[in-house]
Design a protein that fits this description.
Length: about 425
């Protein structure tokens, strides 16, 4: 049973039965409020609609005062579906009759005082730097800060460096005044995830800001050829930026491929060739897997993560002669329009194929030609013969009829949503 199914079962029991009546036990019940502080993770429109329907019914018919806990920390800087749905979900719950109560985030100083008081009451020793890091990493959520403090007190000496997006770094006392303090930091491996907008992450990759000429990069264990050396970046590792952006690898690669030439010098043809080769490798990794090969969701996610890393690092490495710094507008990938037109043309061919072979036996229909045969042989012959097909084969019904079990309406709706997001930006 999935987490969503478990939550639906819990919500149904809560709606139907509520708490045990005082007339059964013979003792009055103390005032009780039901707190739901964690919702199941949803991915896609289908699971989101199930969760919204479940919560709407809970709001309309619950027998116990219930509070749903949401946090809007970082919602303005996120573009992923899983980060956008709470706002839509809140609106639907308000329409169902729920009351919205908003609390301002607690300041860092107030959070530090509360954590220090807890440490004194519990008689545990936590350094001031660690308390400050926990307070800043909680995002104004006192409950999250207390939970982080509990985890920290379990084993404070076992914190090892981990490349995680949820790490908040504490500069050591000896390195606070050092310009290279980022190399000597104590990582905190819990806390809220930092988020970036998709376009903010794209700007970091495309603008390719690096340190000045006077700062030399770390030579490492071996010396590189001069053409392979680059100055240090003025940002985190590309993988950290990608994890904070919560963007799909295909979208990131398409945006980089569409806009990277605007950020290259007009005479840097070699840089354009290097960037194109890396983007080509990323596109190959994003290609649909071969049906003959065994694939799993875990391996596919890893492959997409590698593709996004190759695209981002390829743009950063290949852009050795960037164009002068100025304002650039991020364009929507034209590839999306091409793919949408291609999809509509294929759907039209499917309907035309069904029209041409409507009177043929069902067993013969299994051998009907595919798209390539229709496009290269059938349609040219019909055009040469001057054949005019009766009926309207426009695109009005393209998204209403399923083709091979695929609903074209969902595909068009998803693409229109992506376009709206880009236009709004």
């Amino acid at each position: 049973m999935s987490k969503l199914e478990e939550f639906e079962s819990f919500a149904e029991r809560t709606r139907k039965y509520g708490l045990i009546s005082s007339t059964v036990t013979g003792q009055p019940l103390a005032p009780v409020i039901l707190l739901i502080d964690d919702l199941p993770v949803v991915n896609g429109n289908a699971t989101y609609e199930r969760l919204k329907r479940c919560l709407t019914l809970l709001v309309q018919s619950v027998r116990t005062p219930t509070a749903l806990l949401f946090t809007d920390h970082g919602k303005a800087d996120s573009t992923g579906f899983n980060m956008r749905y709470p706002e839509e979900l809140l609106q639907s719950l308000e329409y169902a009759g729920a009351c919205k109560v908003t609390f301002n985030p607690i300041t860092t100083n107030s959070m530090k005082k509360a954590l220090e008081k807890i440490c004194r009451m519990e008689q545990v020793k936590v350094s001031a730097d660690s308390v400050e890091a926990i307070a800043k990493g909680s995002g104004g959520d006192i409950r999250n800060a207390i939970t982080s403090l509990q985890y920290f007190c379990l084993n404070p000496h076992s914190l090892l460096p981990q490349p995680s997006s949820s790490c908040y770094s504490i500069p050591s006392k000896e390195s606070r005044d050092d310009a290279n303090a980022s190399n000597n930091r104590i990582p905190l491996t819990f806390g809220r995830d930092e988020t970036l907008s998709l376009f903010h992450a794209l700007g970091k990759f495309l603008h390719n800001k690096r340190e000045s000429e006077g700062i030399t990069s770390d030579g490492g264990l071996f010396a590189l050829n001069e053409k392979f050396t680059r100055l240090p970046l003025k940002m985190e590792a590309p993988e950290v930026v990608l994890s904070q952006a919560h963007g799909q690898a295909r979208h990131i690669t398409d945006f980089l491929h569409e806009n990277v030439l605007d950020f290259l010098s007009e005479v840097a043809t070699d840089d354009a060739w290097v960037v194109s080769s890396y983007l080509s490798d990323a596109d190959f990794l994003l290609a649909p897997p071969n049906t003959m090969l065994a694939s799993s969701l875990r391996s596919e996610n890893l492959q997409h993560s590698v593709a996004a890393s190759v695209a981002a690092r390829g743009v950063l490495f290949g852009n050795n002669h960037p164009s002068p710094s100025r304002w650039h507008a991020i364009r929507r990938p034209k590839l999306w329009q091409v793919e949408q037109s291609l999809w509509q043309n294929k759907c039209q061919m499917w309907r035309e194929r069904g029209y041409y072979y409507s009177d043929i036996d069902k067993h013969v229909k299994q051998c009907m030609p595919m798209h390539s045969v229709i496009a290269t042989e059938l349609k040219p012959v019909l055009k040469w013969l001057g054949h005019r097909v009766c009926g309207d084969f426009g695109t009005n019904d393209t998204h209403k009829k399923p083709v091979n079990g695929v609903s074209l309406g969902d595909e068009s709706e998803d693409r229109s949503d992506d376009d709206d997001d880009i236009e709004d930006w």
